[in-house]
Each structure stands twice: as C-alpha cells, then as structure tokens.
Write a structure and sequence with these properties.
Blueprint (H helix, E strand, L loop, with lengths): L7 H69 L1
C-alpha cells in the first residue's frame, strides 16, 4: 500500500486560509451587527416621520374645521 504524502506548500496554504478566515470572522460579525442596527434605526426614524406627517394632516383638518365653525358662528351671531 503506497503512503500518501502531501506537499508541505499545500498544507501551508490550507492552514493560512483557515487562519485568515478565523481572523476575519469577528470583524465581519461586528460589521453585520452594525448594518442590522443601522437598518433598524433608519426604519424607526422612517416610521416616526410617517407618523408625524399623519398627525400634521389631522392637525390641519381639525384647524380647518374649527376655523369653519368660528366663521359660521360669527356670521350667524
């Protein structure tokens, strides 16, 4: 049965690749965490802006109604 020998350059390349992957994984994990966080914050701000716009529409409608009531009350009184 022949003995299997592996070139030392091949084992060194595989080892270096594994070390590179293990060394980069914490930085990639932090990067993904920051991306998720920034996405969540941007969605929260977008929702707040949409809510504020809706409340402004409600305020405009109620102001118009009150002004109409005041004008009608002044005309009849």
């Amino acid at each position: 049965m022949p003995t299997a020998t592996v070139n030392s350059q091949v084992t060194d390349a595989v080892t270096q690749t594994n070390v590179k992957v293990l060394g980069e994984s914490p930085a990639e994990a932090v990067g993904l965490t920051y991306q998720s966080y920034s996405n969540s914050v941007s969605l929260a701000l977008e929702n707040a802006m949409t809510t504020q716009g809706g409340m402004q529409q409600v305020a405009n409608a109620s102001t118009s109604s009150v002004c109409t009531m005041i004008i009608k009350a002044g005309a009849s009184g």
